[in-house]
Each structure stands twice: as structure tokens, then as C-alpha cells.
Amino acid sequence: MKKQVLISAVIASAIVLGGCATDDPNKRAKRGALLGAIGGAAIGQMAGKDTKSTMIGAAVGAIAGGAVGTYMDKQAAELEEQLAAERARDELQIQRLSDNALKIGIASDVSFDVDSATLKPNAQATFTRIAEVLKDYDSTIIHVVGHTDSTGSAEYNQNLSERRASSVVSTLTGNGVKPARLRQEGRGEAEPIASNDTKAGRTQNRRVDIVIKPVIEGQEQQAAEPPPYLGA
């Protein structure tokens, strides 16, 4: 079975690469991308990994277990440097989670107008800087999770949180983050980090969380699993 997978991958690459026009200026890039994807899938199958792990392995490179801490530390340091102004204004927080993941919690009030899922210009600049760092650390899966306060109906809040997460994902992909690395979801009013009984608390609950999970060798599927509860 392993041989069949490997042979199939080689045949597929030969057929597709053979069909590339000789004068195609992007032939080398296309060839590298194709071989990388096919090679990742073949290796994943040969190692007995499930479909999800195979897909993740083909999309991004995995990190050796012993190097994960250093990899995520460097990424956190660069994010802190790039987002120092926002952190000083208390517009976002960067946290280390227990599973080597990073969380960037961003206040919705500085990102969106009330009842809107359109990013404000200043927020566009913030997410652009986030994207610049994420592009350089591509052995991660990025989860974008929208949240709201409890004002209004639960159905409305769920929809708004989903649309806001989608806007952030669009901005990240528009600035070069590969779509295959991104996951998005809305959790509505279900995961507050403060009391919804006060204006200040509701302000804190209206937010977008970006959870950055490392893709670790042998544990690839875990990176794609939704983050756990993100409330207080």
C-alpha cells in the first residue's frame, strides 16, 4: 500500500509537470509547490496518518517537538515588537497558552463600528502588521474567533461574530497569509471574559481572538482542532 501511494504521487507529478509550458515564467515556482504538496501527502499516507493530518502536512511544514518552544517564543517576540503601539493603548493582548499556542485578543471596538463587520482603517493597518509576522512563521494553523457581548439576540450575535471573523480572515489572506493555514468561527456571546452587566465588561467581551497553533511533527491534526474555551 505504501509503495502504491508513493508510485501514484510520482506518476501524478510527472504528468502534471510534463504538461507545464516550457515558456511559463512561473514554471519553477509551480513545480516546487506541486512537488511539496504531493510529497507531503505521500509521506503522510506512508506514515499512516489520517486524512486531516495528511492535508495539514501538505499545506505547511511541521516543527520538531523539541524546537516548538523556541519557534513560538520568537514569533511572540516579533508580534510584541510589531504591535507595541496597540498594546500600549490597551487595544490588544498577546498571551501564551498552555499548549504552546499564542493568542492575540483584539478589542472589537477599535476594529469595527457598532453592528458592523467592516474593519476600520486603523484596524486594517494592525491586521496587516499581524499578517507580516504570520507569513514568516508558516508552520502554524491560525484560528480566528469572533465574540460579542450579550446585547441583542443570541442568533444575531452569533451571525455578527462570524462576519467579523470572516473580515479578519479576508484581511490576513489579502496580506499574504495562505488560506490553507486559516480557520474561522464565531462564538457569539457564549464566551465572555468579563461581566455583561456593565458597559466596561461588554466592551471587553466584544473582541476577536487570533489563536496561533504550532504544527508539531506527529501531532499535526491537533493544530487544526478548534481552540478550547476562550472565555474567563
Short description:
The chain has 232 residues and is α+β, with helices and mostly antiparallel strands. Strands 1-2-5-3-4 form a 5-stranded mixed β-sheet.
What does this structure look like?
The protein folds into 2 domains: 47 residues, no CATH class; 160 residues, OmpA-like domain (60s Ribosomal Protein L30, Chain: A), CATH 3.30.1330.60. It contains 9 helices and 5 strands, in the order H-H-H-H-H-E-E-H-E-H-E-H-E-H. The protein has a 5-stranded mixed sheet. A hairpin with a 5-residue loop joins strand 1 and strand 2. The longest helix has 21 residues. It is globular and about 45 Å long. The N terminus is likely disordered.
Span of the ends, CA to CA: 48 Å
Strand content: 5-15%
Order of helices and strands: HHHHHEEHEHEHEH
Low-confidence stretches: 1-47
Helix content: 40-55%
CATH architecture of the largest domain: 2-Layer Sandwich
Q: Got a strand count?
A: 5
CATH C-level name of the largest domain: Alpha Beta
Number of discrete domains: 2
What is the CA-atom radius of gyration, in angstroms? 20 Å
Biggest β-sheet strands, sense, barrel: 5 strands, mixed
- Please identify the structural class as seen in this structure: alpha+beta
Q: Name the CATH superfamily classification of the largest domain.
A: OmpA-like domain
User: Which topology of the largest domain does CATH recognise?
Assistant: 60s Ribosomal Protein L30, Chain: A
Number of helices: 9
